Amino acid sequence: MPSLKEVRNRIASVNSTQQITKAMKMVSAAKLRRAQDRAMKIRPYAEKLNGILHNISASLEDASDNIYSEEREVKNLLIVVVTSDRGLAGAFNSNVVKTSIALAEEKYPELAAANKINYLCIGKKGAEVLVKRGNGSINLDYQGLFLDLRFETARKASEFVMNSFLSGKYDRVEVVYNEFKNVATQIIRTEQFLPIPVKAAPVAVTEAVEIDYIFEPSKTEIVKELIPKSLKIQFYKYLLESNASEHGARMTAMDKATDNAKEMLKALKLTYNRSRQAAITKEILEIVGGAEALNN
Q1: Bridge partners, 78 (sequence order)
Q2: Most CB atoms closer than 10 Å: which of 82, 113, 222, 250?
Q3: What's the whole-model pTM score?
Q4: Residues with Cβ < 8 Å from 39, sequence gap 6 or more?
Q5: What are phi and psi of 292, to 5 degrees?
Q6: How far apart are CA 83 and CA 125, in angstroms?
Q7: Which domains does the chain have, with CATH numbers?
Q8: What is the pLDDT of residues 77-89, one digit of tens each?
């Protein structure tokens, strides 16, 4: 049985940890409200713009009119891994990294074997794991986006991805991120960002392909302006979804950690009381034994 001093030290340590986890839960709850609000507001706009994007792409008579839909043999793949900068969020980051690695190995085994998988890490936690693994090329230029998450900062990363695709540096771009559902649930999503998957459009979008749009000033200029803007909005949406999911995951993890600390404190206090009672009983027995020895 541990000594009373050891148990007291453990109780003090668990108490301190419980205060930290409770404070982190409150901070994440405050941040979650704003992050969730931003993610929910951009969803209808991004989805509607994405639907128009698919319709216009499918209506183009010449596929060369939309350079972002150009299908090429996949010789170089870019996987955008969206994780967080901080940990203590349960399996939030590890699930994204595992999904990214599985995507490369299962869907593109030849590229993975040839070490031609490129990763763009947005978030430090995903970068740490991938750097340790040492597989493929890892871009760390856009890790600090969540420090100041705005459309202007996200636009730089999206433009880099789009320009790399247009220049032929990458033949396909996949994005792996967490989609926010609620505080306790985040859904891992893997989406093909480039080329634009016209044939893989949702049913509602596919049925709406026959819409006859009136282009003003012209179809070429509209496509030139709309498609890049839509892609940037989609990329920004990925980051907002991931940001809201991060705070939800951390809030849930810290809530569970606080409950676990509470249960541990109960067990430690019970152990402390038993140890104290055992020590008192031992002292009483020693006193009684000493008194009996004096009487004899």
Answers
A1: 118, 173
A2: 82
A3: 0.84
A4: 180, 237, 240, 241, 243, 244
A5: -65, -40
A6: 6
A7: 4-20+255-291 (1.10.287.80), 32-254 (3.40.1380.10)
A8: 999 999 999 989 9
